[in-house]
From TrEMBL:
Annotated keywords: Plasmid
Annotated protein name in UniProt: Aliphatic nitrilase
Ranges where the CN hydrolase domain occurs: 6-285
InterPro entries, per the entry: C-N_Hydrolase, C-N_Hydrolase_sf, Nitrilases_CHs
GO MF assignments: catalytic activity
Pfam family, one: CN_hydrolase
Protein family (similarity comment): Belongs to the carbon-nitrogen hydrolase superfamily. Nitrilase family.
Coiled coil location: none
Length: 340
């Protein structure tokens, strides 16, 4: 178990939409500010680099090709300069950083994943997670991920895990982190997530839905929750709407997500952010102990002779090459004897 008490920061911040380099620099500035204010862990929103593809909900697929091309071009590689800058900022400031990004697939010019990394206070990547299943309209943007990122990192400040947006609705994904002794759970979300046009009722309430899922997980796992959503600024709004009044109306009417913190009973703690800025909460890991006495679903309050859960954490790849085959084909007697 790590140090019992530390400060966590939720970056309720707008990226520089579709500019991954500038967004990375903005993230580095936020990391430095949070570190100066005493934070040991800084969490950013879903797809912070280069922004969330809200446009996929607002345009028919056959009218969104240009939006996708712009978004693809602005997405980043896991070993690219943008992630490297964030890693350096984490190391320079001695803090842990969780950040969401749209990840380019090196095997495909058109393939993307919805990804998140947890970076150590020395700049090392501790967890590289790709969202298991893209949600609703996101399937037009991102491909399915895999279980390789269903990992809880054992750090000096505690055991840290996380899931991306709708994954927090999946009991099995959440349970896989609980079983690894998760003490701090990071849930990352977009700034808005439209489900209906504004003239209809029952539009998706981001704040309420995120609070329900996060509180359930914190109560069940007896862990702390950092719920961090993005902020939609005017630059992103204009880039998405392209001066279309109907699109602007949907964006403006869509409920905004907030960023907040929860304790191991599911109750609120620390700041809740509605405007752009950094929220803070003190986390005392000792608070996770007492609730475990009531119901510890990964120990005495379960029946492992009845329930048997298996998780495949292998990384998915499009092909598996058997090394040496190509060389053998070029140097075999049959190949050497072939006429020119």
């Amino acid at each position: 178990m790590g140090n019992m008490k530390f400060w966590a920061a939720a970056a309720h911040i707008a990226p520089v939409y579709l500019d991954p380099g500038a967004s990375a620099e903005k993230a580095c500035s936020v990391i430095a500010e949070a570190a100066r204010n005493g934070a040991s862990l800084v969490a950013f929103s879903e797809s912070f680099l280069p922004g969330f593809p809200v446009w996929a909900a607002l345009y028919p697929p056959i009218q969104s090709h240009e939006h996708f091309k712009r978004f693809l071009k602005a997405s980043v590689y896991i070993d690219g300069p943008e992630i490297e800058r964030v890693r350096k900022a984490a190391s320079d400031n001695g803090v842990f950083v969780s950040i969401g990004f749209s990840e380019r697939n090196p095997a495909s010019v058109g393939g993307l994943w919805n990804s998140n990394v947890l970076i150590s206070d020395t700049g090392q990547i501790l967890i590289h997670h790709r969202k298991l299943v893209a949600t609703f309209f996101e399937k037009l943007v991102w491909d399915p991920g895999d279980g390789a990122g269903l990992v809880v990192a054992n750090t000096r400040i505690g055991r840290i895990g996380g899931l991306i947006c709708g994954e927090n609705t999946n009991p099995l994904a959440r349970y896989s982190l609980m079983t690894q002794g998760e003490q701090v759970h990071i849930s990352s979300y977009p700034p808005i997530w439209p489900t209906r046009v504004p003239t209809e009722s029952d539009n998706y309430d981001n704040r309420a839905a995120n609070r329900i899922r996060a509180s359930a997980h914190c109560f069940e796992a007896k862990c702390f929750g950092i719920i961090v959503a993005g902020h939609l600024d005017e630059v992103a709004r204009k880039s998405i709407a392209l001066d279309d009044p109907a699109i602007e109306a949907i964006i403006d009417a869509s409920p905004r997500a907030t960023s907040f913190f929860l304790g191991p009973t599911g109750a609120a703690t620390g700041d809740e952010m509605t405007d752009e800025g950094i929220g803070y909460a003190q986390i005392d890991l000792d608070d996770c102990v007492e609730p475990k006495r009531f119901h510890d679903v990964v120990a005495g309050y379960n029946r492992f002779d009845i329930f048997d859960v298996t998780v495949n954490r292998m990384r998915r790849n499009p092909i598996r090459f058997l090394e040496g085959r190509a060389e053998d084909a070029l140097t075999s007697p049959e190949a050497v004897a072939m006429p020119e």
